[in-house]
Amino acid sequence: QAKLAGKGRFQLFDPEHDRSMRSLHRELDRVEQGLDKSEFFLLYQPKVNMRSGELIGAEALLRWQHPELGLLLPGQYLPFIEGHSLMETLGDWVLREALAQAAKWHQAGLEIPVSVNISARQLHQLDLAGRIEELLKLYPELPSGRLELEVLETGALEDLALVTDLLNTCVRMGVSVSLDDFGTGYSSLTYLKRLPASTVKVDQSFVQDVLDAPEDFKILLGILGMARAFERQVIAEGVETIEHGKLLLRLGCEFGQGFGIAKPMPAESLPAWYQEWRPPPSWAELSPIPSN
Ligand code: C2E
Ligand code: MG
Ligand code: MG
Ligand code: MG
């Protein structure tokens, strides 16, 4: 009906819109119930030093075991939650859960920093820094540096001054910040300049095709150079194969994360994975090509 009306025609009542709003509300209700019923859980993906094999962190990635739809990835439900205060509730759950996990690992003698993805909505939440401080107090044995916030580069930051303040407060508490999906947004350089991020995560889109796309190779070189100039650490996402790792190491990027190293896994599997995992021998031999 709405489609037939054509472009530019004004309609007082759009049945399709009404239907989708109703189903959105249903879905938001489902998320709330899902939280109550523990349908959400986190997987952890290792971040490593590709040369030494050292585990440098683990990124918490949200999953939803939906009773009817099965296992859902964040891309399937976060976009519609992002516009709703429920995102703050869910984000808070993720922070709590990830910190509890870091504390468990700490107890077991595994000192692994956890990285938590923070959505743009959460970054505009006024009490976020206070909330993080509260959560860290629950685990006084855990150094605050054990928490890293991954800030989405594409998450349009409406109020950059406010977000900068918020992140500065977090950094003063000892929490670290990284710029996620770096290079994909329109404000990469502004964010690099303004936000107190110690690490830049090169978006996987530039890494995946780098072996056969000269443009992506140039972008990767540019990002690495920029990160060096700003004295930020760089980690590459999307290290899918040994060849990707080789090229990155050649370019002087030692830190990596990707299916070629490990897929996201349950927290319980991570210690055993780390016991077993060794970088491919060809990685250890590579020395970086001196830049200029
Ligand atoms: P991200 O933060 O950039 O996370 C990396 C995504 O790439 C993850 O997808 C991961 O499973 C996937 N990945 C890792 N290595 C490889 C690889 O080698 N190849 C390919 N093709 N993919 C790889 P996932 O778990 O579906 O998450 C997608 C995005 O959803 C995340 O991107 C992040 O922006 C968001 N997200 C995930 N968990 C949370 C959360 O707890 N809170 C918020 N706000 N966002 C989250
Ligand atoms: Mg991330
Ligand atoms: Mg990313
Ligand atoms: Mg991403």
From TrEMBL:
Domain (EAL): residue spans on this chain: 24-278
Coiled coil: none
Compartments where located: Membrane
Origin: domain of life: Bacteria
Protein name: EAL domain-containing protein
Biological source species: Sediminihaliea albiluteola
